[in-house]
Every structure is written in C-alpha cells, then in structure tokens.
Q: What sequence folds into this?
C-alpha cells in the first residue's frame, strides 16, 4: 500500500537501485548494455536519474543481471511507482489554473493521436468560452488567464498532422453546466468540430446497452502515456501495461458510440431541446412543485409556450398541463394570467 503522493517520487531511488544491482553483478555499463540490448549512454542516464526508465527497460536490465525473483519483484514495483504520477487538485491550484493549461498544451503538442473518454463533462479542447467559464467557476484563481490559455490550446484541433478521437456519453454532453442557450451553442460547437477530417467524435446514448461502467474520465497520448481524472487530482501513467489497458478500455467504449452523421443528428436534437427551454422569472422561484413536493430554483417550459396567442378568455395555461416537461406543476406555480402579461413572450 502506498500514498498517492508517493507516485512519481521514486525516480532517484530506482536509479540508485539499478546502479547497485549492476555493481553487485560485477558488470560494467558496457557489458550490461550489450546483454540487455540498451545503449551504454542510456544505461548511464538511467543509473544517474537523468532519464526515467520504463517498466520494460527495468525488466530487461534485471533479466540481464540475473537478480533473484524477490529483488526483481521489488524493483519492478518501484519502476511502476516511478512511472505513475499523482497531481492533486490542491497542488494544481497552488501552481495556478493557467499553469495547468500550459502543462496540457505541452502534452498535446508532443502527441500525434490523442484519445479522450469523457463520461462526465465536455473537455477543454471542445468547450465554448461560456462553457469554459462555467467549468472553472468553483475553482479559485485567475479565471480570465486560464480561459485564454484553454482557448489557445484549441488551435491544435485545426492542425491536420494531429488526430483526435473523443468519446462522450450522453450524460456528459447534456449535463446542464450552463444556461440552456449556452448549452445549445455548445452542442453546435461539438457538431461543427466533428466534421473536421482529423477529428472523430462519438456519443454513447443513454439507451445504448454497454456491459461495463464508465467510472472516470481518461486521456491517452499516442501509446506512451495515459491520464485518469478524479475529484482529488490526476493520475499520470507511463507504464506500458497501464497505457495498453486504457487503450483496450477506450476501444471497448468506442464500439458503443455513434459517430459522423448519426452523432451530429444527436447533437442537433440536444441543441433543439436546449433552445426549447424557457426559465420562468425569479418571482416564481419559491412556488411549490406539485409533482415532487420540492421547491424548484426555476421552472422549465418549452419556449413555444411564451408565444401562445392571447385571447380574451386567457385560458391558455391549461395547455401547460399536457406538456411532458412540466407535467401538471406549471398551472399551479404560475400566475393565472396570460403568458404575455407574465413577461414570457421571448
């Protein structure tokens, strides 16, 4: 068992252990390099901590040295720890929100194919400025600078030498992080980007049978690095076995997603649904909801309601009882006046 903070902190310890194992075996750096098929210069850099060895490198070196099974297990475990890093949210906030955007930009610049699995929310590369602003609202820091850096990163999407694959769940796409009008624009943004030749964007709908759970967001940079996000921070994995596992996971979820015209049709329907939403004025906020018994922060209505024709009997409110979104709560929580008089003609 280890603490998250231990991850990525064993590089020097691993380097010293490899150097000591070689000396105990009575081999020079040149002879070890010849035995394991790694250059002498790299052996030197691994033993001095200048280069972090992969788990595969460590296994090849230990096999060439003929160490005991117990020592091989210990050093292999140490290599996995050294190749897995944990960046806590607290540490990221101390460095600044804009610094996190710089780190992501560096990872993205070095990669040729980036895969995103997004079960919870829309990632920064796909966000509109309004959505980006809402996504950072609960974090302290310099929001304008962080948002500017995040939007700068999006230029990479138009680099034809890069490939991007995004797999989002319907829950992530439709999670109402912003006002409905902003969400509608965000849907348009996703649909527009999905038409770029180097971008593959898919949506897993809620009614799709998927025989496994979507536990967390993860990103894969080529076949060399994977990151997994939690509320507490980000785990960065360089162990080839961890990367391969996440590639397999991604392929599994990708098979259940709708892409191309089907995805754009879904996104268009989501956009229409958001545009069909009207928020009642603040004066209605404290009305009781007759369906749930709870007090609602606002009442959701199709926008067409606000354009009903007023007549002298002013009985159009009865039609609200037949709308699926509000069921029969709206006639009770709204005033018995025409929608136009209530200021809903938008």
A:
């Amino acid at each position: 068992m280890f603490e998250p903070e231990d991850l990525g902190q064993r590089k020097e310890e691993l380097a010293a252990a490899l150097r000591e194992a070689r000396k105990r075996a009575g081999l020079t750096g040149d002879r070890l390099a010849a035995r394991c098929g790694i250059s002498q210069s790299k052996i030197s850099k691994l033993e001095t901590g200048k280069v972090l060895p992969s788990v595969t490198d460590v296994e090849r070196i230990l096999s060439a040295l003929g160490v005991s099974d117990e020592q091989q297990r210990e050093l292999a475990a140490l290599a996995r720890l050294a190749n897995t890093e944990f960046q806590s949210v607290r540490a990221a906030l101390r460095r600044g929100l804009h610094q996190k955007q710089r780190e992501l930009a560096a990872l993205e610049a070095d990669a040729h194919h980036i895969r995103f699995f997004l079960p919870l929310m829309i990632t920064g590369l796909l966000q509109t400025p309004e959505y980006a602003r809402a996504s950072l609202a609960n974090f302290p820091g310099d929001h304008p600078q962080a948002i500017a850096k995040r939007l700068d990163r999006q230029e990479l999407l138009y680099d034809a030498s890069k490939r991007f694959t995004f797999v989002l769940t319907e829950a992530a796409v439709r999670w109402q992080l912003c006002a409905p009008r902003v969400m509608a624009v965000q849907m348009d943004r996703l649909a527009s980007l999905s038409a770029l030749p180097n971008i593959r964007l898919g949506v897993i709908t809620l009614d799709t049978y998927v025989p496994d759970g979507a536990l967390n967001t993860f990103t894969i940079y080529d076949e060399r690095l994977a990151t997994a996000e939690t509320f507490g921070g980000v785990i960065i994995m360089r162990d080839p076995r961890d990367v391969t596992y996440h590639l397999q996971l991604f392929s599994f979820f990708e098979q259940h997603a709708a892409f191309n015209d089907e995805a754009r049709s879904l996104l268009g329907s989501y956009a229409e649904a958001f545009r069909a939403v009207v928020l009642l004025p603040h004066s209605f906020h404290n009305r009781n909801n007759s369906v749930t018994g709870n007090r609602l922060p606002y009442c959701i209505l199709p926008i067409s309601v606000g354009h009903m024709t007023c007549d002298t009997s002013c009985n159009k409110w009865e039609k609200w009882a037949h709308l699926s979104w509000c069921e029969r709560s709206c006639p009770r929580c709204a005033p018995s006046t025409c929608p136009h008089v209530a200021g809903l003609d938008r």
